[in-house]
Predict the 3D structure of the following.
Amino acid sequence: MLTSLRQHQHNGHRSPHKPLLMLLALGHLAITGSSRVAWSVAEQALAGLIAEFGEPSKTGRAQSAAYPFTRMRADGVWVLDADVPMDLVRPLVEGNVTGSLPSPLEAALLANPAVVMKVARMLVTSNFPDTIAPDVLEAVGLDPHAVLSLNPPVISG
C-alpha cells in the first residue's frame, strides 16, 4: 500500500512526487513521532525535493507540491485535516492544512520502527537511481546508511 502509490507518468517516466511526499512523512515520523506535515512546511520542503529529485516542470513550486499533497489521499495512505479540492494551493494556505498518514497506519509504523526503514528503502530504491538514493533519504531526514543497509524486505504474495 505505501510502496505502490499511483503515480503520474509522462514520456514513460513515473513522477516521483508522491514517493517524495511519503518519504518526507516517514522522515517526520522517524524524527518527531508524527507523520503530520503542515502545508507551510510541505510547500517549501516538498517543492525543494521535487525540484532537486524530480523531472523538470513548468509548474510553479507551490503547485508542484500541491499535486501530491492533495492527490495522495486517493491512495488511501494520506489524510488532510480539512476538505480541500484536488490541486488547489489557496485553500491549503488559507486553511493552514496539515496532512498525515491515517492514524491506524501511523500507530502501526510507530509500533515497529524497522518497518518505517523498510518502507523507506522500498520507496527510494524503486523510484530513484542508486546514485541519488542516499541524497534523497538525507534530504527527508532519514539516515541513508540505516535505510540502505537493511536486508531487502521479503514480500509474500
Q: What stands out?
A: Residues 75 and 84 are 16 Å apart (CA to CA). The two ends are 13 Å apart (CA to CA). The chain has eight helices and five strands. Helices lie at 17-32, 39-53, 61-71, 89-94, 103-111, 113-127, 133-139, 144-148.
